[in-house]
Specification:
Largest sheet: 8 strands, antiparallel
Structural class: alpha+beta
CATH architecture of the largest domain: Roll
Number of helices: 7
CATH superfamily of the largest domain: DNA Polymerase III, subunit A, domain 2
CATH class of the largest domain: Alpha Beta
CATH topology of the largest domain: DNA Polymerase III, Chain A, domain 2
Distance between the termini: 70 Å
Shape: elongated
Amino acid sequence: MKISAAREELLAQLQTVSRVASTRVQALAGVQLIAADGRVELRATDQEITLRVPLDAVIEREGTVLLPARLLVDVVRSLSAPNVSLEQRPAEQDVELVAGNAQFHIRTLRNEDFPAFPEPESDGVVTVPARAFVDTVLRVANSASRDETRPVLTGIMVSASERELRMVATDSYRLSVKETTLEHPLVGGFEANVPARALQELARLVQQLDGETLSVGVRQNQVVFQLGEVVLSSRLIEGQFPNYRQLLPDSYEHELSIAGSEVTDVVRRIALLAQKNAPLRLSFAPGELTVSSQTPDIGEARESLPVAFQGEPFEIGFNPDFLRDGLESVGSGDVLLKLISPLRPGLIQSAEDGGFLYLIMPIRLNV
């Protein structure tokens, strides 16, 4: 194999694809360069996620080579010349990289150890608006669990049919649901528990490439996303995802409408003093909400804002990061805060977007 490409183009595509290269398995720590049929493609995988991106390059000799991903990115980033050539030298088991007066010889990895990638199919593929899909992902992704001992909760349950796109994520301490109404009905539909990390990587790609439509193909244990010539695939998570509707309370004692930007700013400020697992306290009194925090040996903070609260005063505690995530996910406009009691979960909703809700468990407060 021998190819040449602009350094900036090569670096950009290498940085994109190497994000999914494994850091644990040596055979998967590489990026595969394939020059065939008049095009060049870069591939990487960590067994869970696979990613393939095109490279605008001149092919002088076709072939396939596997190189250490991190090293290759660092080398190309360090170059000053505008163009780079890469030539495989089978006898030396390396690739010669030349840019200006700089010359590198990088040992290749075993191509035989690199897995085959799933090919996109035309049957059973659902085409969805890329921006709407990504916006929905970003509204719920923070609520997915990072605890690998409960793999079913590390995913986002994605459902698409007719004119609705719905995503649900929970780590058992909080729950996010976003229902997006689409402008045009979908042809076909699907439901799958997709690893949150795969969907977050997909969101980066869509934002970077600014594509309009996204093709989604769900198979028995795998999902394949295609955005132009970029293809990302991921294994699906097995197991029963929680029925989120059963987790939602039937009714609430208090329902308050609060200016979203104002309460979010207050929570951000006061949370600075909620450290070492200290909760954020929300104290309600007629006409007023006081947000406070206290961490021994560090300090304390409090701030009040007017709210339309009526009834007996009470105090409820929340994880500051979880509460901030929920408020920030609402976006612009007023926030609806629905509460029952200090020991029951609270619900955060957008006053304008009825399709988003965020359920958060409270923390028991010490008097």
